[in-house]
Amino acid sequence: MKKEIDIDKIVEDKLGSRVPPKIINEIKDTLRKYNLSQEEMEMVLNEIVREIEENSIDPGEPVGIVAAQSIGEPSTQMTLRTFHYAGVRELNVTLGLPRLIELVDAKKTPSTPLTYVYLTEEYRGDREKAIEIARKIELTKIVNVAMRIDIDLFNNTMIITLDPVMLEDKGVFVEDIIKALQKAVKKAKINVNPDNPNEIIIQFTEPLDPTKVEKLREKILNTKIKGIKGINKVIIQRRGDEYVLVCEGSNLSELMEIEGVDYRRIRTNNIREVEEILGIEAARSLLIEEIMNVLEEQGLDVDIRHVTLVADIMTRTGSVRQIGRHGIAGMKDSVLSRASFEVTVKQLIDAASRGEIDNLKGVIENIIVGNYMPIGTAKVKLVYNPYRKQS
What we know:
Among the domains are: about 5-55, no CATH class; about 140-225, Gyrase A, domain 2; about 340-380, Orthogonal Bundle (DNA polymerase, domain 1), CATH 1.10.150.390. Helix content is about 45%, strand content about 15%. The chain contains 18 helices and twelve strands. It has helices at about 5-15, 20-35, 40-55, 65-75, 95-105, 120-125, 125-135, 140-145, 165-170, 175-185, 215-220, 250-255, 270-280, 280-295, 305-315, 335-340, 345-355, 365-370; strands at about 80-85, 90-95, 115-120, 140, 145-150, 155-160, 190, 200-205, 225, 235-240, 240-250, 265-270. A hairpin with a 2-residue loop joins strand 1 and strand 2 (about 90-95). Helix 14 (about 280-295) packs antiparallel against helix 15. The protein is flat. The protein starts with 6 loop residues before the first helix and ends in a 22-residue tail after the last helix.
């Protein structure tokens, strides 16, 4: 009879407190799944221990400086271009150094916001259904379906000539445009030209002011017919066995409510919006993912732990903060450290007026005053007295 192996005891004895409980449970489940012998388990656990020891930092290691070097040096090799998205002329996406700067500066809106909308099982395999959702969410204004707009000051009218090809492409009917205009334009009668179904005549009841005609024209052209605010363009892509909508712009809260959209898989590159809608942990995960994507896209090999440290520092207060004088650098307790970053005189005067005290606990402030930095061997507060007699 085969002796039953106590996996729990073997793992606990080997790893103990070296590994977080969640990881230990995953290791136990994996060992059970593959039904390994005790000898094979010992080999796997020894390899895990070796990896832990090789990848652990020494006490007093300046992890912040190492992370800054490890991300900063490869960043100098980055390009400064804005690329077309996946060969699509209409969509641009900011990559390289500009995108990295955007991320560490925690910009409120990215220069090229993108949202990847995944669909539910019922919709994801059907192109026609994907097109239907794309038409529903893409922001469509009158300017997108109008060929031209003519103003007749003598007859006090405005004539909008519609493009039948764009009407079909956007899935818009003339009735939809009339409804939108009735909400946007007051004191006017709106009708379809009986001689031309693609012409809408706006007959104003009050005389048009020539000085305000251009402003009125812009208002009419920018009148929303349908769609979600912020989603300016939608491109349908085939990925594997499903269709995915790539949207220019982002509006998570409204997109997640659309029928057919899989809200569990929707993804945007807008860190601030993710923080607001999904919370700080989701924003932290996205920050790590976006920085790693930028580095990997440029062919740069940076260990994810350096990026994780940066993301942890940026999100530790419960909100995403930039690495700069308005964020992380400006929040440091040390006066000298804050002054060494930017606006030196202002930082020193503000600190003096408040009577702040610098306890010299960090690296930068100790370099400034000429002390040993509290890293490595200098972190150890141990004095050896060779003359003291042993008891």
